[in-house]
Structures are given as C-alpha cells and as structure tokens.
Amino acid sequence: MASNGWRGEGAANVRTQLHRALGLREAIGIGVGGTIGGGIFVLVGGAAGLAGPAALLAFGLAFLASLLIALPYAELACRYPEAGGGYAFARSVLGRRWGFLMGWVFWGAYLFVSGYVTLGFGGYLHALTGIPVPAGALGLIAACAAVNVAGVRLSGQVQFAVITLAVAGLVGFGAIGLPHVDADNFKPFMPTGPAGILSATLLTFLAFGGFDMVAAAGEEVENPQRNLPLAILLTLAIVLGIYLLVAFVALGTMDWQGLGASGAPLRDAADRFLGPAGSAVVAIIAVLTTAATANAVLVVTSRISFAMARDDLLPGRLARINAATGAPTVAILVSAALMALVALAGSVHISTSIGGFLYVLHFIPPLVVLMKLRRRGGNATGFRMPLARLLLPLAFAMSLALLLSSGAIGIAGGAAWLAVGLLADRVRR
After folding, report:
1. Could you tell me the fold of the domain covering 21-428?
2. Among 103, 234, 259, 299, which residue has the least CB neighbours within 10 Å?
3. Any idea where the domains of the chain sit in the sequence?
4. Secondary structure letter of residue 331 according to DSSP
5. In the prediction, which pLDDT does 38 show?
6. Does residue 16 carry a pLDDT above 90?
7. Sign for the pseudo-dihedral over CA of 8, 83, 380, 362
8. For 326, which DSSP code?
9. Burial 170-202 (b: 16+ CB within 10 A, else e)
10. CA distance 409 to 396
11. Which pTM value belongs to this model?
C-alpha cells in the first residue's frame, strides 16, 4: 500500500499517543454535552412539527434504539479503548478497508450533524442579541477550536461546567412549567399518524446521539474498563429523564404547530409561563448548551480524523500532536473548517437528513464487529452486553428502520458522501 504520500514529511517522528486525561466526570460531560444541546433545544421543535404531541413517543422509541446500540458499544469500548470509537472497533476486527469506510461515515455523520447544532446556537443567539445566525455559528466554531487546541483537559473541564449549568436550567424549566401544562395541547395526540412518528424518531434518535462521543475519546479516558461503559450508559439515563420532562412541558404549554415552526422552540414555550425575562434566561441556557454540544462534536470529529491519519488512512499531518498541550491541533483545525462549511450551507433540514442517515449507518459495522467477536468466543474484559442473541438482531432491525426514515435527501446525500470516500480510498491505494 502506498501510504508515504499520506503521512506527511516527518510524521513518523511525531508522537501519536494521546494522554489519558479524562475522568468519569469529564467523560460524562462530553457525552451529555454532546447529546443535550442540539437535541432538546433545537430538535424538539422539529419533532413536534413532524409528529405533534406524539413526539413524546418518538423520544421513547429513539431511546430504545439508542439503548440497543449503546450496550454493544459499551462492550466494544472496553475491548478497544482507542481514539475513534466505532472506527477503531471496525478497523481492528474487520480490517483496514472497512475501517476506512467506517471512519469516513463516522466523520461525515458528525460533520453534517454539526450543522443543526451550530445553526441552533446561532438561532438562539440571534433571539438574544440580533447577531445574524451564520455569524453566530461561525463564531462558535472558532471559539470551540481555540478551546480544543489548548488541550483536552481544559475542553473537558469547560464542558462539565457548562453542562452542569444547562442541566440545572432545563430541570428548572420543567419543574416550573409543569403546573402550566394544558391537556388540550395534547389533542389530537397523533395528528400526522404513524408515519409522522417514524420521521420524528430519526430526529429524536439524533437527539440521543452523544454516547458514542465518549467511545471516540476512549484513548483519553482514565481507567477505561470502568469509566467508558459507565459514562456511555449514564449519559443515556441522564438525557432520557431530562428530555421527557422538558418535551412534555414544551408540548403542554404551546401548540405543536407553533412549536414546530419556531427557530427557538424552548424560548417560545418558556415565554408562555415565564414571560420575557424567563424566556431570555432559557435562551441564554440554550446558547451555552448548544455551545457545549458543538465543542463535543469538534472533539469527536477531530479524534476520528486523527485516528484514521495515524493508521495511514488520511493525510499524516492530521495525526500530529502538539507537544505542549497533547492536542491533535491539525485535526482540530481541519474539522473546524469543515464544520464551518456545513454551517454556511444554512439548512438544518439538509444537515439533519444527511447527518441522520450517516449517523445511523455508522452504527451497523460495530454491531457486525460484536457478532464476530462473540462467535470467536473468549472472555471480554470489563462490561459485557447482556442477552446478545436477542438484542443484537433487534439493534440491526431498528437501525435499518431508521435508515429508511431518513428520506430521499438523507439517502442521496449520504450516498454522495460515501462515493467521495470510496474515491479517496482508491486514490490512497
């Protein structure tokens, strides 16, 4: 394999091992921060517009799908606590070619998903300050790049502080709003029928995306056999409780059509029972939380490209690590630039459709990996998925259903990204 052209001059002399600098708290911060921001502050409106009050069912279905996939992910993260998450799993077991495709899909998924996060941040910032949405999105990406270049420990500490504030604000929103819920807002409960619920489930599945970010940073997590599965499963548990509370209050205090059409859905819902001052506080929390999500997205995209470059599957300069900070600086800056291009496209619908398709697709190879490992036998180190013979087929079935629900735009855009990756792989070889 002709790989020298991809490594870059002097790449072989650069240290490419990341520091284990993230404890359980910081790992949960990356997982919860990567999940809550876009999901509850941006996608809750889109899910309401697709399914009406039955968006609550979509959140429940998405949680079940996420749990089915999180269990094998937790086992694999213990077996392969390396940078890149699912990419590392596929490359180690299925080989370099499948590893490249898995990494390419994984990278693309989060690059496209970043669009709804950064534009959601821009929408809430615009509601507060009047700053244009694209300018706010680009400013956020630049700030996240600066924090990540400074080092992963600082990034993890900032992440945990912001998410602690955001979780407190969301719980407060739910607790204060519960007495104001109007049962009439839930009638009719399924205005768009089962098809609307299925479409909303893909969006809400994206809202649970984040547990895999923990695995992607697995090489930087301390005591990975204990902390990785705990961080993955605790991320889902924390997020489920917050989502159900906040979505119930939002749907119960505002009609579903208005919620679906809003660019800042939770701010508009808060205005109904907290007034202008309260809605401004919610918007501030939304700005902070979507910023934390964007930071987590940049962590995972840069670590995927770093891991692929270290394995000679992408240009070697992406595997360079700053000796002073321990951060993969080039990978961070390249991923930030690509996130900026997605934000400049300016379409939440397109980014969620393509990102959703790729995001679901990237879970299928790890499921294949675990099936193969289980057939080989042997004892796994650390966490072991229960009832694998029953739950793995269910995870496959749920993944295929979600792929179909991504629609023509998602399938076409995802196929185009795959085609670019296949061409790049052919050039590399």
Report:
1. Amino acid/polyamine transporter I (1.20.1740)
2. 234
3. 21-428
4. H
5. 59
6. no
7. negative
8. -
9. beebbeebeeebeeebbeeeeebeeebbbbbbb
10. 22
11. 0.73
